[in-house]
TrEMBL record:
Keywords, alphabetical: Lipoprotein, Membrane, Palmitate, Transmembrane, Transmembrane beta strand
A molecular-function term among this protein's GO annotations: efflux transmembrane transporter activity
Classification via PANTHER family: OUTER MEMBRANE CATION EFFLUX PROTEIN (PTHR30203), OUTER MEMBRANE PROTEIN-RELATED (PTHR30203:SF30)
Keyword Transcription regulation: no
GO cellular component annotations of the record: plasma membrane
Location(s), subcellular: Cell membrane
Family named by the database record: Belongs to the outer membrane factor (OMF) (TC 1.B.17) family.
Protein name (database record): TolC family protein
Database matches in Gene3D superfamilies: Outer membrane efflux proteins (OEP)
Species of origin: Campylobacter californiensis
Main subcellular location of this protein, as a coarse class: membrane
Length: 461
């Protein structure tokens, strides 16, 4: 009866856990609910084959993503090690010895020689009385989930950076084409003015104005080409391709920015399920919460069981006979009494870590919702600016056409023509920037909504 009572008590204690309740984090925000139609291959919605190729290559070869995958593998192995602590360890121990006694010892037996052989299986098991092992497993499992979400977040960040760098490089190429075209026109005008100056049809100041226009366009072109080299280098690092491959094989065939897709998305209450960084922060909180239970379990004794089963004999050829078998069972209870406050400090450290992760989780939630709101506002503003810029470009083109026609017929002076040329060039360059801003604002929408990530999809991995 007493043995049964001891067994019941042991089973009861094995179910104990000192893991505290999860920290309460404010997650209620007053935003209306609407879902989005974003998928995890969102960059394909721009319908640009060069862009698709760059993103796919980057996701295969990017070093940051490879590091995130290594962290994911490490977390998975750590979880396996934690789970292994739930089960006993089994070892094999074999011994062989030869000895001779001394007649000068208490036995008085001189020159007695004997052999000893043994082979045993040793079983060790720590009973998880206070939930230390189970909480360690819970912590490792949460860290594995966090690593999965970190991998998803790294994938989204890399894809977003590749897309935006690609758009920047294409916009610079568009500017280069505009400036080359403008420079050629300015040079033709300069040559024409030179001939007019030689025959006395114009003053020298008109000729010098045309020379200054060429010089200004040449400076702008050089600056744009320098920026293209820097942008291609950044894209090369992200994608694993060389600068020559990007400029010669990809950008050379990209004449204009793609038309940005329409996105059905708004600030929503389910955005917290669509952000891998928010999901990772929550798993980190869960991990630190479990570690508080691990730290508190150190206040209580550990119960270890040991079993030895094997054979022992003075003769090697009789080691495995029935009469040579041996066994032993033992249990030990160990408790630290004085540790100079180490356990208390460890508990406090674990609780501080939990508090810090709770704040990080709350911060991640607020940042996520804030980024969604800003991204939606920026997309709306970028679309308005783009439309206004297109209207301005149309107006400046008409102004230039009129100024050019009036100058040729003598109804406008050369300064009016130069002003219309400069304004048209400036507006064409601004129109490229407006298109770039609009495309990037769409990328930020995809990014702020998690790039198609959903918690429920990743929990089944």
């Amino acid at each position: 009866m007493r043995n049964i009572a001891v067994l019941v008590l042991a089973l009861f204690m094995a179910g104990c856990s000192f893991r505290p309740e999860m920290s309460q984090v404010e997650t209620k925000f007053e935003y209306r609910f609407e879902t989005s139609d974003i998928n995890d291959l969102w960059w394909q919605n721009f319908n640009d084959q060069n862009l698709n190729l760059l993103v796919e290559e980057s996701l295969k070869h990017n070093i940051d993503l490879k590091l995130a995958y290594i962290n994911l593998q490490s977390a998975a192995l750590t979880l396996k090690n934690s789970r292994a602590d739930l089960f006993p360890t089994l070892g094999i121990n074999g011994e062989a010895s030869k000895a001779r006694t001394s007649g000068e010892t208490y036995s008085g037996q001189d020159n007695v020689k004997y052999d000893s052989f043994s082979l045993s299986a040793v079983l060790n098991y720590e009973v998880d009385l206070w939930g230390r092992v189970r909480n360690s497993i819970a912590s490792s499992d949460a860290l594995l989930q966090a690593s999965r979400y970190d991998y998803d977040n790294a994938r989204l960040t890399i894809a977003s950076n590749v897309v935006q760098n690609y758009f920047t490089l294409v916009s610079l190429k568009m500017k280069e084409d505009i400036l080359k075209e403008t420079l050629k026109s300015y040079k033709d005008t300069m040559e024409y003015r030179k001939k007019q100056l030689e025959v006395g049809a114009i003053t020298q100041i008109i000729y010098l104005q045309s020379v200054a226009a060429v010089q200004s366009a040449q400076i702008n072109l050089t600056n744009v080409q320098n920026s293209m080299l820097s942008a291609s280098n950044a894209l090369a690092i992200l994608s694993g391709k060389s600068n020559d491959e990007i400029l010669r094989d990809i950008i050379a065939t990209s004449d204009t920015l793609p038309t940005p897709p329409q996105i059905s998305a708004d600030i929503s209450s389910d955005v917290l399920l669509r952000r891998s960084d928010v999901a990772s922060a929550y798993e980190s909180l869960k991990s630190s919460n479990a570690l508080v239970g691990v730290a508190k379990a150190a206040y209580f004794p550990t119960l270890s069981l040991t079993g030895i089963f094997g054979f022992s004999s003075d003769e090697l050829d009789r080691l495995f006979v029935q009469n040579a078998n041996t066994w032993s069972l033992a249990g030990s209870l160990a408790q630290s009494v004085f540790d100079y406050g180490r356990r208390a400090n460890n508990v406090e450290l674990a609780e501080l870590s939990q508090s810090a992760n709770a704040l990080k989780y709350e911060q991640a939630i607020k940042a996520a919702l804030g980024e969604v709101r800003v991204a939606l506002h920026n997309r709306k503003s970028a679309a308005e600016v783009y439309d206004e810029t297109q209207a301005l470009l149309s107006s400046q083109s008409k102004i230039y056409d009129l100024a050019s026609a009036q100058y040729e017929t003598g109804y406008a002076d050369h300064l009016t023509l130069l002003d219309s040329q400069r304004n048209l060039l400036s507006t064409r360059l601004v129109a490229v920037d407006a298109a770039l801003t609009l495309n990037n604002s769409v990328v930020e929408i995809y990014k702020s909504f998690g790039g198609g990530f959903k918690v429920e999809q990743n929990q089944t991995k």
